Amino acid sequence: MLRILPYLGSKALLLLITALSVHISLSPPNPPVKKEDQNYFVQQLGIGSKTHTSLNPRNSPIIGIESPFEKVVLWVTFCSKLMVWAGVLLNIVAAAAVGCSGGNAPLAAAYLGSTCPVGSHLKLDGLPLESVGVHPALVVGTISTVVAAVLRVWCFKTLGPFFTFEITIRPKHHLITGGPYAWVRHPSYTGVYLTLFGASLALWSPETLNSTGCASQTPDWTASLGPIWHAWQRTFGMAFAGVWVAKCLFACHGMTTRMKKEDNALEATFRECWEDYAERVPWKLIPGIW
């Protein structure tokens, strides 16, 4: 049994690092924008105004506070963190069951039955080696979320009090062009995309509870439990994946439109300074590409 512990420990550690990284990336560094700050922004920039003003030269809504994404952005990030923590903790509990029981517990047997690939013959302490190893997808996912967390924290530190999850221009706001913003105009969104990509890989790597595999390979002595467990697992996994995909698509669409609104708001506020900055840094997310 001791030989299996490093495999299970490595998997649990990577999952935990993934959850912590996602939590850091998606947690607001500053309190929500106060009502008076939003009122200032409305008065100065004419949010949603259809009339031409000196601060809204393109005669278009500058901010999306009234859009669906702006109304639920904090709930979307909270939902993302909650789902990642739930998925990670469930997998850690399952891995612990495997390590503690040696395959003699129903949960461990069902977990192994759902993760071992068809035709698996390699064994480690009587358990399928593939079920306790660390899949490359999990490693890549963890690295992606860690890089995203570092990038997001860099953005938090660079913008300081100006970094909020709501689009707003503070009374003493000034244009920040240093740090990661010297490379791309929206590095924090690069971090969000990396976070969602990495979390998706980690949660749905082949050796996790969320992935459905060879239910038919559940040990014979748990045959009576197998169909019930795997029916529940597939139902839960499909529902979990459906909510996650829908949330990610909604977030990606919201961030794409939000980048345009942020650019419009900054252009309307800082004018020539913004134009010089946009010319110097034309890339939004990836230097030299996009």
From TrEMBL:
E.C. no: 2.1.1.100
Localization:
Endoplasmic reticulum membrane; Membrane
User: Which Pfam families does the UniProt record give?
Assistant: ICMT
Q: Which GO terms describe its biological process?
A: methylation
Q: What is the uppermost EC class here?
A: transferase
Its membrane topology is listed as: Multi-pass membrane protein
What InterPro entries does the entry give? Answer: ICMT_MeTrfase, Metal_cation-efflux_comp
In terms of superkingdom, the source organism counts as Eukaryota
**Molecular function GO labels:** protein C-terminal S-isoprenylcysteine carboxyl O-methyltransferase activity
UniProt keyword terms in alphabetical order: Endoplasmic reticulum, Membrane, Methyltransferase, S-adenosyl-L-methionine, Signal, Transferase, Transmembrane, Transmembrane helix
Q: Extract the signal peptide range.
A: 1-27
Catalysed reaction(s)? [protein]-C-terminal S-[(2E,6E)-farnesyl]-L-cysteine + S-adenosyl-L-methionine = [protein]-C-terminal S-[(2E,6E)-farnesyl]-L-cysteine methyl ester + S-adenosyl-L-homocysteine
The answer to whether UniProt assigns keyword GTP-binding to this entry is no
One Gene Ontology cellular component = endoplasmic reticulum membrane
Name the protein family.
Belongs to the class VI-like SAM-binding methyltransferase superfamily. Isoprenylcysteine carboxyl methyltransferase family.
Q: What is the name attached to this protein's record?
A: Protein-S-isoprenylcysteine O-methyltransferase
What is the scientific name of the source organism? Laccaria amethystina LaAM-08-1
**Species lineage:** Eukaryota, Fungi, Dikarya, Basidiomycota, Agaricomycotina
